[in-house]
Amino acid sequence: GENVEQHPSTLSVQEGDSAVIKCTYSDSASNYFPWYKQELGKGPQLIIDIRSNVGEKKDQRIAVTLNKTAKHFSLHITETQPEDSAVYFCAASEGGGADGLTFGKGTHLIIQP
Amino acid sequence: AAGVIQSPRHLIKEKRETATLKCYPIPRHDTVYWYQQGPGQDPQFLISFYEKMQSDKGSIPDRFSAQQFSDYHSELNMSSLELGDSALYFCASSLPPGQGVGTDTQYFGPGTRLTVL
User: Fold this and answer.
1) Is a pLDDT exceeding 70 seen at residue B101?
2) How many contacts does A have with B, using Cβ atoms within 8 A?
3) CA-to-CA distance for B43 and A2, rounded, in angstroms?
4) Residues of B with CB below 8 A from A44's CB?
5) Residue B33 and residue A100: Cβ atoms within 8 Å?
6) Least confident span in A46-55, B29-38, B78-87
7) Is pLDDT at B102 greater than 80 in this prediction?
8) Whole-angstrom distance, CA of residue A92 vs CA of residue A20
9) In chain B, pLDDT over 70 holds for what percent of residues?
């Protein structure tokens, strides 16, 4: 089955700086890679996703890059703000059907004022 | 915009009791997924349904069962509850598969917090 590794487990950055979270996956059949933000006691919220036919995707301060050859993808958040503080999860699946997602262990992002 | 609805939001049960969690997907979403998230852990996929049929199966214990009804809502039934079943249970929904890019995007509900004493 799929295995998703996520690093770092905790990331502390100064407000206004950039944050980068990296994930690797094992199953070459995976084609869909979403990122979720989860605040304490709440459900995961989709922030951006990317599919295997695209190398990079950007939405305002958030961008995701995908390297299918190396089986890794990364989340980039620029101009970080206090409200960006949360746990971020990467995930992978084959996509295109009702497949369950395999999640990474999560990154606790702390924005220092 | 309408979101995934889960009920109840909190549930307290004793060991060996049963529990039923309910999920109402976003309108027009006919695919439902269940996940279990232990304290400080990542969500673990349990099972999914599309058009009332089981579609994918993850690490769902034999003590658990689920189904999807004609109105697309889903219920997760948990029997012989154990202390280790205490967790957040999330339901997610997506548009029907195979209808173009983005139909597999999963939107999560607020979760049900199950505590087993």
Assistant:
1) no
2) 71
3) 14
4) 43, 90, 108
5) yes
6) A46-55
7) no
8) 18
9) 95
